[in-house]
Design brief:
With 374 residues, the protein is an alpha/beta fold. Helix content is 34%, strand content 23%. An 8-stranded mixed beta sheet has the order 15-14-13-7-12-11-8-16. Strands 3-2-1-4-5-6 form a 6-stranded parallel beta sheet, with helices on both faces. Strands 9-10 form a two-stranded antiparallel sheet. The longest helix has 19 residues. The radius of gyration is 20 Å and the shape is globular. The relative contact order is 0.17.
Length: 374
Amino acid sequence: MKLNYGLAGFGGIAKIHLLGIKNIHLLGVPIDFEVNLSTLFTTSQTHRMEGITIGFENTVDSIDTLARSNVDLVDICTPNFLHKEEILLASNAGKHIYCEKPLGMNSIETSEIMKDISKSGVKNQVAFMLRFLPAVAYAHAILKQNLLGRIYAFRGEFFHSSYLNPDKKMSWRQDKNKSGGGALMDLGVHLIDLVRFLIGEIEAVSASIETIVKKRHSVDGKLEDVSVDDWALLSMNLQSGTKGTLEASRVAAGNEGTRLTIYGEHGSLRIDLSNPYLPAIFDVNSKNFSEELSFLSDDDFYSEVLRLYPIPKFSQGFMIDAHLTALLWFFKSIVADKVLSGTPTFEDGHKAQEVIDAAYQSAREKGALKNLNI
């Protein structure tokens, strides 16, 4: 089967998607379908020319034209404020939709997206690509088997540092009207999804946020106000009674990385993206017993992630590897005409956005605990 692939946007994240897709057959990934680079939408003429050079059959200058083309799916890699309009156009045209995070600017938008998607019935997935790291799939299997017993706490960190540089230029990411938020929307959303996927639903949240670099120069030299957070700290209560914290920062100089530690009555596990293939697992005596466990071969989600994820020899780095595996997961759902178990659907994107909205409301109210209706 051949899937006609449509891409909206040609920025950095779009190119990460394409680096994976273009190299599928060189990576030895076992798939039974072809991905045809059918149509690229971008408003940049230069980027449209580049699209033809790398193999797209067609390039267009409007999302409406892309939605009406013969593509089977649309991969949305445009700025956050464009997501809703582009999703609705693609949905109404009957195209399956893969969308970069966050799904929308706020939960009002994502709620409207959910209503439309439920009517159109198209396959949909949010790019919560961390789900598709072998270490995360391994942890998912461990937790499903209740190996750690009752989970009582967790701590997550997603740290970048480049925004600490005051010379970094202003972009749509620092404009709340175009991004919807800062570090929490950009990075924290991944941790929120992992908590929901691995541990359970979030019942209440308290948050603190801060903007460290408050003004930046635009590309034309104008000094502008930064209207989003550089740093966010969330304290969460889950429906199960588990409690934990998530911290997202784009100003964490010297401590970049992504980590999630989960504490249970029989031990703990730690996912650290410095090793995307295996989590570290500890028993009650703090002995590390990270090794292949017999039940893993019977875990469908773990087995399929391991099958699709490039082996270390052919790794292009976890960022490209994880995005490719997430995309392949979506392509397989289209070919199989069903939602595969473990898929981060638009519903997951909407629920993550509800948590983010509650967190921002809490921060405005000086950390007041906000309950969610999830």
